[in-house]
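Inverse folding, one chain.
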């Protein structure tokens, strides 16, 4: 980034690099002038421009008067007269125009009560509005007014904080975070997204105010958590959530994994930091949010299943099954989707150790069963298992990777030959009923299960002829006779 010094240089560089060259800014300026008010571009658009990040499609505009009135005026002047969505109670309005989303709000002052993040709002100046912003880097504004069009307004040295890579609040952080505790998670999210450091005073304040996160809705918390998980190195944000105490309120199942216990000289690894490494590893290979969630939760069953055995040492028997059951409780508590996305995470967690065990003895029948149980998630499951390799021993790491490569190859071969992914029995219940003149009964289920097991064990091929002949043999053992009709 170019080094910026005087205000004149700032303005020149803004104009040079076309921060507000888009004709839409001229329309907003013209609309503001006709309403005899002032308006400014503020927040993320300005921040990302100065960081040389991809230009944001979300543009926030603050006006010294009525944001809704300005939005309607701008819509009148835009080609096609786009619709204005407005929220009178909040004094905000939004226009979607081509690929851009414009949000308008009147400059305001805010005051908060102790038990709510919803402020009492009154009309304010631009400086008042910048004071209420969460961070100095988000308080930067560019004038859209005739007298100083294109000028950067930076009362809190946000530009300097951008250059230094610092997350800092415009006001006392205790006030900023206590007023709106979601800002604590936003600070951590920006630190993770931008690879910035949170100013020490601000970080201490988050630790001090961490319990205030309890007044924030789970939906808003999850939204920030998802954004942290989707960064290129989620462990930055997850570690900060842990160190500040926020994670204990959000995902206590994760914090329960932290620490190392030792008995009789035997200790287990710190499963919390192992989890962070797994999430980072998988993030190098996929942007799938729900696969990243599966990596985050894959070991949560280890805390409740941890035991010390005199002969075996530390054990976590059944932690995958326990963890998969815990997934639903977490999704329900955090108001996350209780649909196919949750079931996907449950399945990855439940099967997370199967390929590891399989890698020691790659038999066709075991591979068929894995493909059958995993279905459409088989490839993602393998990606997860490869990310789960966190050993520092290079020889062991190499061996694990070679074993998983062998499992992947075996899956491909078995799948091409036996076609057991999303398995459908070659012989249907209707065929069984017709062949033996049966009404619905348990024997039909027994025959179908026996056919499935025979195919998975490799006793018969996955085709109609072999399955039909096997059915006849199985039915005979159950005392059934072929219908003469």
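Residues assigned per position:
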């Amino acid at each position: 980034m170019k080094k910026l010094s005087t205000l004149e240089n700032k303005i020149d560089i803004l104009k040079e690099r076309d921060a507000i060259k888009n004709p839409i800014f001229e329309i907003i300026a013209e609309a503001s002038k006709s309403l005899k008010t002032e308006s400014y571009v503020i927040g993320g658009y300005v921040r990302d421009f100065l960081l040389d990040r991809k230009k944001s499609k979300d543009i926030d505009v603050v006006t010294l008067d009525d944001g809704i009135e300005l939005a309607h005026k701008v819509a009148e002047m835009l080609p096609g007269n786009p619709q204005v969505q407005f929220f009178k109670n909040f004094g905000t309005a939004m226009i979607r125009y081509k690929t851009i989303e414009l949000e308008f709000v009147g400059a305001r002052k805010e005051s908060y009560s102790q038990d709510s993040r919803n402020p009492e709002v009154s009309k304010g100046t631009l400086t008042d509005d910048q004071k209420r912003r969460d961070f100095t880097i988000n308080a930067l504004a560019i004038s859209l007014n005739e007298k100083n069009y294109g000028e950067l307004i930076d009362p809190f040295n946000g530009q300097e904080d951008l250059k230094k890579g610092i997350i800092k609040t415009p006001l006392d952080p205790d006030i900023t975070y206590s007023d709106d505790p979601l800002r604590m998670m936003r600070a951590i999210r920006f630190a993770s997204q931008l690879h910035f450091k949170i100013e020490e005073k601000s970080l201490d304040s988050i630790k001090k105010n961490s319990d205030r996160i309890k007044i924030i809705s789970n939906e808003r918390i999850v939204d920030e958590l998802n954004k942290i998980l989707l960064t290129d190195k989620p462990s930055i944000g997850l570690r900060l959530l842990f160190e500040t105490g926020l994670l204990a309120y959000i995902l206590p199942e994760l914090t329960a994994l932290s620490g190392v216990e030792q008995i009789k000289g035997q200790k287990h690894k710190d499963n919390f930091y192992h989890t962070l490494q797994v999430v980072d590893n998988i993030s190098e290979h996929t942007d799938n949010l729900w696969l990243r969630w599966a990596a985050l939760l894959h070991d949560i069953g280890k805390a409740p299943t941890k035991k010390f055995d005199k002969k075996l040492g530390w054990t976590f028997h059944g932690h995958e099954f326990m963890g998969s059951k815990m997934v639903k409780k977490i999704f329900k508590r955090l108001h996350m989707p209780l649909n196919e996305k949750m079931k996907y995470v449950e399945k990855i967690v439940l099967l997370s150790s199967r390929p590891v065990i399989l890698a020691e003895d790659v038999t066709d029948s075991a591979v068929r069963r894995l493909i059958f149980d995993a279905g459409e998630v088989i490839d993602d499951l393998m990606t997860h298992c490869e990310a789960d390799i966190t050993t520092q021993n290079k020889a062991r790491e190499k061996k694990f990777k070679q074993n998983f490569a062998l499992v992947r190859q075996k899956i491909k071969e078995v799948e091409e030959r036996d076609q057991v992914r999303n398995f459908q029995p070659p012989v249907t219940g209707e065929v069984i009923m017709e062949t033996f003149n049966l009404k619905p009964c348990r024997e039909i289920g027994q025959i179908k299960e026996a056919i499935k097991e025979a195919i998975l064990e490799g006793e018969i091929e996955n085709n109609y002829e072999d399955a039909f002949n096997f059915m006849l043999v199985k039915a005979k053992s159950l005392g059934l006779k072929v219908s003469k009709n």
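The two ends are 85 Å apart (CA to CA). The mean pLDDT is 88.
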